[in-house]
Predict the structure.
Amino acid sequence: KAGVTQTPRYLIKTRGQQVTLSCSPISGHRSVSWYQQTPGQGLQFLFEYFSETQRNKGNFPGRFSGRQFSNSRSEMNVSTLELGDSALYLCASSLPGQNTEAFFGQGTRLTVV
Amino acid sequence: DAKTTQPPSMDCAEGRAANLPCNHSTISGNEYVYWYRQIHSQGPQYIIHGLKNNETNEMASLIITEDRKSSTLILPHATLRDTAVYYCIAPNQGGKLIFGQGTELSVKP
């Protein structure tokens, strides 16, 4: 079956712009989580959505937001981009339940110039 | 999430077993131990998880001590393609994984 699909794979944006990233989870997976990976901070949790509701949130400013649609697809948005937002953004999906494994997409590489 | 501690790096000869340790002394009774790995610039890949019994799948084995304060991931016959950063995680909230710095495993010919 198809894995987690993230689009686009690469993106270059200018400071001050906003960006929307998309994630299509594995069929049947209703939980979608987003992570930011930078060389300095490593992999950091952004937020998690389940059944169109944000269930968990990491320690990121309000410029980072997300949403989930009824088909479980998710988008994350970053407004007023800063140079420090340059990172690999990863999406993971999992089945409902506490102790299920997460499957990650290949990520979107965002470069802010 | 329980805090996990892993060595920053390890080397392993190709064809030999790679044993990656993880300490999770603050783990609570209902927290599973998960292992993921990340090959350079790719998304993390799930390997295995367990609660208190040893687990084995087609990729690896997971040995958890009886007191659950530590575990070891075993790759029985490491190949060059197993070179990656390995993360040990003990999440307590369904979809929220807290990644540490992991162990950078280098498999050498």
About this structure: Residues 8 and 72 of chain A are 18 Å apart (CA to CA). The first strand of chain A starts at residue 5 and ends at 7. The two ends of chain A are 37 Å apart (CA to CA).
